[in-house]
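Submission sheet (multi-component)
Chains listed below:
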Amino acid sequence: MKILSIDLDRCVGCQNCELTCSFYQIGDFNRERSNIWVSFYPEDRFIVTLTCVQCEKPACMTVCPNGALQRDPKTQAVVVDENRCLGCRMCMQACPFGNIHMNREKRVVQKCNLCEGDPKCVRFCMGQAINFVDVDDLAEGKRKSLDYRLKKLYPVLGSGAEK
Amino acid sequence: MRCGQEITIDDGKIVEIRGLEAHPQNRGRICHKGRAAVDLVNHPDRLLKPLKKKPNGSFAEISYDQALDEIAERMTRIKTQVGARSVGVWKGEALGFFQQEEYARRFIHAFGSPNYFSNDSECFNGRYFGYKVVQGYWNGCPDFEHADLMIFWGSNPPFSHPPQARLIANGKERGAKIIVIDPRLTSIAYKADLFLQPLPGTDGALAWGLMRHLIETQTVDRPFVEKYSVGFEQIAQYAKTFDPEFVEKQTGVPSDIFLDAAQMIVESRPKITHYVGNGLEHHENGINNIRAVACLGGLCGAIDIEGGDPWPESMGGHDLTLYHELPLLDQKPIGAEKFPVLYQLRQECHTMLAMDYMLGKGAYPLRGLIVAGANPLLTNPNSRKVKEAFASLDLLVVRELFLTPTAKLAHYVIPAASFLERSELHYHPHCQLVTLTTKILEIPGVVDEYTFWRDLSGRLGFGEKYFPWDNEEEVNRWILEPTGISLEELKQHPEGIRYKPIRFRKYREKPFATPTGKFEFASQYLKDLGYPEIPEYRPPRYVNHPQKEFPFILTTGARKYLYYHSRYRNIKRFRSHIPAAEMEIHPDDAEGLGVKDMEQVRVTSEVGSIDIPAKIVHEREIRQGVLQITHGWDDVNVNLITPDHVNDPISGFPLLKAIPVRIEKIS
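Outcome: structure written.
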């Protein structure tokens, strides 16, 4: 399954993703409509960008009393059926990450639906921090990234044969 | 940033702009400033017909030919009455960069006037000089990707140059560390391993302190310094004063953090990128502060190496300017005497002096001006004076996409083509790449820059001689002639062609482009002009001579993600994200004044006052005592309170980032 993976080290906090997400929904740059969030913590100089991780066992889906949250068979994303959503907010309470929010105009909940398999935030991420990847490839990518750092440490940690 | 774009057109209208995957500049990524063309090109307020100012002050439509006839006639009248040099051109960034700039330079020299002005007498050239004088080149994009340490001096690339974000993230992923030096907690400062928050304008003291540390700890790149530089002994002597305690006193940066930074530099040598932004050039000692940073780069051994500060080579195409053929130095270019470095190194006349010449206080009168895509009424300091000067002209022609505040003052407004309505060459020196943009649209009645200058020169009698090409395509072909790259080849490669392979340490085989051919810690050139030979540090005036009536320090011009100087405020969706001007203030300062968040306050400098809401930011986001207002807002124009008469002595750049002000509650 492909998910949106966000490398926080690469994120530079430009918020292009938020604007893109809003744009492709409503043609406007309204952060409140974005399904991806960039949060700034100046006290710790820390930026976190977060969106739905499309859980294997989605609490939102389990708790929805009206079956408004379903898995898209094509993309495996958990998507909101706006016609079925009652706006009861049970899913918002159930989601441990806070990744579902209320669309105040439509009075239904909204969340990332992976743009039907072509998540727009990926192409517009200036730091290339957001990637749409298979979870297995993701693990491999992380290993490779760590390898770079190990390579630098190698002269220190290595067997000594290099010296 | 001239990123590669992939544009979708439906029924003659642009409907989508995406980043071009193959373009080395942005690799498929694009920010919303780049996509703004969708809104700009189709904007309902876009100027489509030439306008002429009527005696009652309103505009009436006029035909293009009639407008140009009248402009040429008025230019000729000024030339006959007071001389050709009393007409100038002024280039902005709304209509492009290099090639568009060269057309304007060519035109005005062909007319007989040396007075070419641009935004570059208050932006970019400060950084260029600081580096050019020391090492003969300036690289707008050092090699972040392969660095071990990236140092950002008063720059915030994620906002100012978004495609660099990817390169910086690549470097970071490889394990590079980041140091950010800025009075504000910018987005790049969030990513820093060390964040130094100095008092505005004191960066030079930091750079000298770091140089002292390298010299004292004998971690200077000795082979480079001994073989390829001049003036090391002088800087070694001068640096002695800058011990950590002195640096702390000058900059407000705690000495332990300063020493951590110094240690990080020592450990990361030589693969260090120093990236100096706009933040350093708008100060009374700006150029010397930047020079000091350039010298520090030399001590680190970062010069022209991978992962450091490579020396970009140019393509070597034909030059459109006429400085060899028609130098016109006897015509006394405005500013060449008072700020010779700007003229000698960049052939720029000084906009800080242009207003005086317009207002009759110069060595000769400046009576006519053709402005191409610039909006000095909002972007030059001391806006009231700018307005008065522009309003006094006998002839003001403005080429624009929109009726800007500057265009409103014009006698003639000529609608300009956007970058999608012309074809031009672009250079990306850091990757030694040339690209050709495609003209994808034509709007009836709107001509490109080349056509405009050609048509006007034809009416002035020098069209055949100096603008002989039929169209911009022929110009592009001519520019490429000596390069071995053909126009046809470039058309087939929208991602561009690398005109030369990148090589490092070129100084081993060719001299640096400095007077001595060496890396110049000390500059005889500047000394001969009466400036300090080494980049001496001078504390900002507000530190040495604080004024009781102006207890706060205002810095201006911090970039907002979606705006480009005064541009794009008319794009509705941009305004949804950033609706209005505000003044950033430290919470303790706001509390001291009894000001609530977003409460309207009056900010007063020695130049004037503006009213603006006070945005109380987090205590770490800005230094206490420092305020920030971004420029470019028509309704709350911060340049109404910025001075044009306090200048860096070398560049003549205005003081825009350490202005003494006071704050009053309005209620």
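Remark: The domain at 126-133+146-305+506-528 of chain B is CATH 3.40.228.10 (Dimethylsulfoxide Reductase; domain 2).
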